[in-house]
Each structure stands twice: as C-alpha cells, then as structure tokens.
Amino acid sequence: MSDTYIMAIDAGTGSVRALIFDAEGNQIGCNQREWKHTADPRFPGSMDFDWKTNWGLACSCVKDVLAETGIGAAKIAAISTTCMREGIVLYDGAGQEIWACANVDARSGDEVGQLKQIAPELEKELYLESGQTFALSALPRLLWVKNKLPEVYQKIARLGMFNDWLIYRLSGVLVVEPSNGSTTGLFDLQTRTWDRNIARRCGIRDDIFPDVAECGTMIATVSRKGAEESGLAEGTPLVIGGGDCQLGSIGVGVVNVNDAAVFGGSFWQYEYNTNSGKPAPQCAVRVNCHALDSVWQYEALAFNPGLVMRWYRDAFCQEEKRRAAEQGTDPYALMDREAARIPAGSHGMICTFSDVMNYIAWRHAAPSFMNFDLSPEQFNKYTFYRAIMENTALVTRGHLRLVEAATGKRPERIVFAGGASKSALWSQILADVLNMPVETPVVKEATALGAALLAGKGIGLYPDIKEAAKKRVKIAREFTPDPKNEDVYRRAYETWQAAYAAQLSLSDHHITRYMWSAPGLLSNLAEDTNVYCR
Length: 534
Known about the structure:
The chain is of the alpha+beta class. It is built from 19 helices and 22 strands.
C-alpha cells in the first residue's frame, strides 16, 4: 500500500490544483495555477469560463506535480475530481464545449424575472422538489442562453459540471454525479437524478442531460489523447468525484447522519448531514445530495466573511502587516492577539455584513458598524475586528437554528475547517456563540482529500468510505464553549437580528445599497410581499 498513490484534481473558483496522496491520506505533493473568469462586456454580470486555456492549466498542474514529487504517472492508481459548484459546461453533438460559465456568473437577472412570471409559486414548488431556488441554479442561466444566444442553445447536446468536465477531457466520457448535479435545480432530490419535468416547466429543453452515477464510481480510464495532453498514463482509472463542500465534508470526517461542519473562507458554509432530502416549506436553506449514497445535506451560506476580513486587514491594519513581515508571521495572528483582549460581545458593537440565509429572497444589507461610541480605549480597531468575527459566528448561529427548524435536530458538535479555522480566537468565538464544542482538523486540503478517498473507493482500496474518512481525519484541537459567554451571545444575537432587520429595510427601500442580492431579485422585490417574511 505504501507505493499506492492517488491523484485529486480540483477546479476551484480562483485556481486549479493537482494533488497526490498516498493510501493513508497523506499529501505528497500539490501544484496550483490561478485562473480567471472573464466578463463579456456585452453582458453585465457575466463570468465566462475559458475551457481551452483552463484545460491547459489543469494539464500543467498534473505534469508539474508528477515531476515535483518524482512519482511516475504509472504509479497513480486512480484519479478523481472536484470543483466549485454551480458552474456549468454545455457541449454540442460532436462533444465540443460551446459555452461555459463560472459559479459566480450573475448575468441572468432578466431570466429570473421571466421564470417568476410563469407562475407565482413556481420557485417554491421547484424548491420543494429540487432543494434549489433560482439564486444559484442552472435554470436561469440555461434560459439566458436560450434568449440571448439562440444559435448556441440549438446546438446543445449535453450539460455537465466542472468536475465532470475534467474527467471528460481525460477520457471522452461524460457522466454527472448527484452532489454537484443537484445544485443545478434540475435534479429530483429523492431519486438523485435528473427531473426532466422541471426543465419542461421552465421552458428549457429536456434532452440535454447525460447519465448519472453516484460519487466514488469508476466510470472511465484515461484515454490516449488524455494521456498525451496531461502526462498521465493511459488506462489510469477515473473515479467520479463531487462538489467541493460535499467532498470537503468527507475530508474532515463529516460522513454520518447528524454530523455537521462549517467551512470558513471567502464564503462560510454550514453543512448538516441527514438521511432525508426533503426540503422545508419555508424555503430558507438549500438542500443538496451528499457525495455519499442515501445521505443529503442541508446547507446554509454566509457571503463574504473571508473577503470582509481581508478588506479590514488591508484597509486598517497596515502596521500589523509591516510587523508580521518583519517577524515572519501572519498579520492575522497579531490582530487576533489584540482582539482576544476585547470582551465577548465587543462592548455591544453590532456590524452587518452577511445575513442569515433566506434562500427564496436572498439579499444582504449594506455593510455597517453600529452601536459604538468615541472611546478609543473600548472602541479601537481591534474591537471592530472582533465584531466582524462575532458577526460571522452570529450568522452561523442563525443557520444552525434554520436547519434545526427544518429537521428537528441539531448536531452535538461542529467540525470547523477552512482558512478561518486557523484562528484559535475565531474558533473559540464560534464555540461560544453556538454553545457547542468546535473541532478543528489537522488536514489542510479537505476537499482534495475527500476526492482522493473517493478515488480509492472506486478502485476497491477503501471498502467503506465512512471508515476510510474516520481513520484518516485527525483533530488538531477542540474548543469548548465558555459558560460565562452563553448569556452574552444569546442577547447579542437577539439585538443583532433586530438591527439587521432595520438595516435590510433601508436597502429594500433603496436608501442604502445591498452588499449582495440574488439575480433578478431587485426587479421583483416591490411586487413580492414574501420577501419581508424572514
């Protein structure tokens, strides 16, 4: 087993990576290339995916990680793939890519309005079947292609996601899996496959859907052409992977029903495992297929916590950046040290960035800081910094409550992974605000590790993916809630909710600008009274 190596290829929002793991889940090597998604100047909000350039970057990563590790291509026992979710690729009858967009594409606002005009309750009806609304799904994007690029629309033969695209380029075989496929809004959650009736109800063709296979299924091998382009060995098994959060959940051991994780990065995702994929009628949270058979995930997203932190560091903490460079440390570590001196609740300061998820009418109020006075001893830059941390944790508290309302259950503990989990202060704040233990894992590349474990399952290396994950995931530290802070954060959450509602009303009435709103929401906001039901 010591000479058995597995490769994971990860098509993220900002980069593509190729990673090699040994059979025990140890990372042996990683090579990464940044990529960009270009806007088409004709279409505001567009983010096109350049499949030709990006395939070249993916191949470069594969070749370079093999060279850097000295592991011959013939020693790679299997390959699996993962990616950003929601991005889609369209193919013509000859199998050539003809259109693709990244997950951040937001050009289809008009089409969201068009879908809402089909029937007032259509979005809710489809949500109860698919677990998705129009905010992130493929439905308005496909309708956009139909309306704006009819010549491309007529040529569509098949639709796929980016993790499937990577395997397709290596093998010529296109198969979609449920974890990412379900984010299109075109899946039936219970059957974990395409629901052609959804497409027909939305005025979209129903003959463009490829076969579906569960994650961890070996579906192809590297073709001669794929080998020539990538540097891999012809005949290497290719195992279907999945979406980044679902595979990240496997990579941190969140594999059983009632397990839960928070992934803290540019976005914060709360993922809760359940044995039922039935969405709640409130339409507040997203429901996806997990990358495990017969497991689903309730998902609640917080927008931009990592980006807000980066903005605050770069705008107000130049001194910490300078000192960190001199000391060879992270500026966030210096900022954390000072913020830890600020009492829980940040002296009553409130800030509004991301809101608790409201999937059917998703928008966020204008960013703001409130409830501070002009005392520099209490309200200095570290108070503001801690308030941002507490804001994100309060949002996560709201997400925990949303999912609990939908399922009637709550987890016993949370696994906290991603860049934010490197902060012991943020981890402790999260434990205090949620009032439950928070564990941070050793693994740094959870999504890629999840893909590697699925690749091993596909070739029989791991008979049981749950056992494989549990054996290979190691917890670095556990943070237990401080009972002194329970009442502080309970009251802080109630105050924050009321303040956020007021701030959101200002944006709803066009007095302030939303930090973000779902495509098409603004044009329908005045007409849709349900958006005020939170």
